[in-house]
Structure formats: structure tokens, C-alpha cells
């Protein structure tokens, strides 16, 4: 027995020795196969009544089936279906998908949250066209906090044009559904809400365990808040500029003066983009520092600190007059200022 441990394949000496040692040789071969199975990546069916295990070669791996929501693997569709009733209770992505649907339901029911989302949807549509309101939570706990505490814990909100939606962020099926919603809804009475939650999950890999960041998303169409109609009467300030071209100044100098003038107009109303709208301020800073950066139309709803009234501010730098006229045509009381040809200085 000891010699078997030190020499897994003893040399053949005679027929009689071979016969005596045949059982030991078979045991060695079986031990080698077991060692190979444990030292190589193994795929195992997660259905407990099956538990089939195979080496994770490309051919074998192709035959296995994944859970639609997570990294659990099964040797067949039959095993996947048989295990689902039990697996669905613990499946991470299934639970996060359910959490997304709860967020959407709560957004519909909470009056202040719906009002906030409706405001974002309307200003986004008026300045950028049809699209979806995206609500991002950095982790499941953040989404659960919103369910408990409401609007004060709502995730990061942005308005996304349907052309800017990314299939890689949500998968082809949801992408197709979301784009279809964006093209068919009535922005005068409806909005599209797109909720996504970031999760960290284990992924199948050879050797060490690997973790990856993934997004679980759900979307829905809902009615605009009735109170949103009151925003139609808001004063609208459009801050714009024609394409910045000049022989005297560099692109950076032109953009610096443009952004300084823009912020000067807002300071007249007591609005500081850096303090009150830091994301807009970061985009404008990047626009100044990098000549390759192009700004999309941005809309904010600041409050005039002197009158106490909110107003709609649309920032449209380096755009043609046709685009400006289209936005002007959607609003009532509109004031449009070319920030490069005003009292703050011209080129």
C-alpha cells in the first residue's frame, strides 16, 4: 500500500505480479481520474436530484444551460425547470428584478415622487425629445431605502433620449421593449420610467472566484402627475450660443468666455450651478477643458432667489437657430439669450 502512494504506476515484473497488482493499478487509474476531475474546472448541475458534474471543456460547457437571471448552471433545460420553484426564492437577479418592480409601483403611488419624475420627464421631452426617465440605484440597499423613506432616498435621476439607450446595459430583450415604449407613448400625458439596480455577483470562472458588476433593470409606462400641468406656465430662460468661431481667440478661450457669461446670467437670479447643480457644472467644466467634448441640451429648474419663483432654464450651446426655435415653440413665456452677444461681453 505504501509503494502505491510513492509510485502510482509500479513497473511490470512478471505475469503473476501483474495479476496480483491488477487491482492496485486499476485503483491508481481511478485515483488519477478523480485527481483530474478535482484539479480541472468542473461544471455541476445545480439541481440537487441530478448533480451531474463534467469537466468544463468548451464542448461540455456548451451543452449546459444557465439560469436566465443568474450564474446557476444546469445540465439540461429539464433540470433547470425542475429546480426553478426552489431556486426562484433565492435567485439574486430574480429578487432584484422584483425589487425594481416594487420601486416602479411605489413611484406611481407616492404623490411627491411622481410629481418629481413627471417634472423630469416633461423638461426632458421639451428639450431633448421622446425618451425615458432613468432611475439608478448603486446597490439593492439603496432601492430598499427608497421603498421605506420615499422621495428623499430616490436614486440618481437622468433623462435619456431613446437614441441614447444602451442594449449592453440592459440586455436585448428589455432594450427592445424600452425603445418600443419610448416611440409609442404620449409625452403630454405619460412618462416612461426605467429603473436599474447595480448588483455584484459571482461569475463562473476557472481558478479563483470572480465577481462582476451587473445591472438589473425593469421599465414601465405611467401617467404624468396632474400637478405637472402647473409647470406649463413657468417662465423659460433659454441660454444659447451660435457655433464658437473666431480668429482672435482659441477654442478654450471662446468656451471659457461662453460658460462664464452663461453662469453670470444665472447669478443675476441668485443661481449657482456649482453649488445647486453640480452635475451640470461638471459637464460645463469638461466642455471648457476638452475641445473634443460636445454638449447636449441640458435643462434645469432652479429657483430665482430674488422672486422666490422657479423657472425653466434650457442650456443650448453651439446649436443652430432651428433647434432653438423648436424649443421656443413648445413654451409660453420664453426669454432667449445668446450668451456670447450680450452685456457680459461679445467676441
UniProtKB/TrEMBL annotation:
<dbReference type="InterPro" id="IPR038825">
    <property type="entry name" value="Apical_junction"/>
</dbReference>
<feature type="domain" description="Apical junction molecule ajm1 alpha/beta">
    <location>
        <begin position="92"/>
        <end position="205"/>
    </location>
</feature>
<feature type="region of interest" description="Disordered">
    <location>
        <begin position="1"/>
        <end position="35"/>
    </location>
</feature>
<dbReference type="GO" id="GO:0043296">
    <property type="term" value="C:apical junction complex"/>
</dbReference>
<dbReference type="Pfam" id="PF26649">
    <property type="entry name" value="Ajm-1"/>
</dbReference>
<feature type="compositionally biased region" description="Basic and acidic residues">
    <location>
        <begin position="14"/>
        <end position="24"/>
    </location>
</feature>
<protein>
    <recommendedName>
        <fullName>Apical junction molecule ajm1 alpha/beta domain-containing protein</fullName>
    </recommendedName>
</protein>
<dbReference type="GO" id="GO:0005886">
    <property type="term" value="C:plasma membrane"/>
</dbReference>
<dbReference type="InterPro" id="IPR058586">
    <property type="entry name" value="Ajm-1"/>
</dbReference>
<dbReference type="GO" id="GO:0045216">
    <property type="term" value="P:cell-cell junction organization"/>
</dbReference>
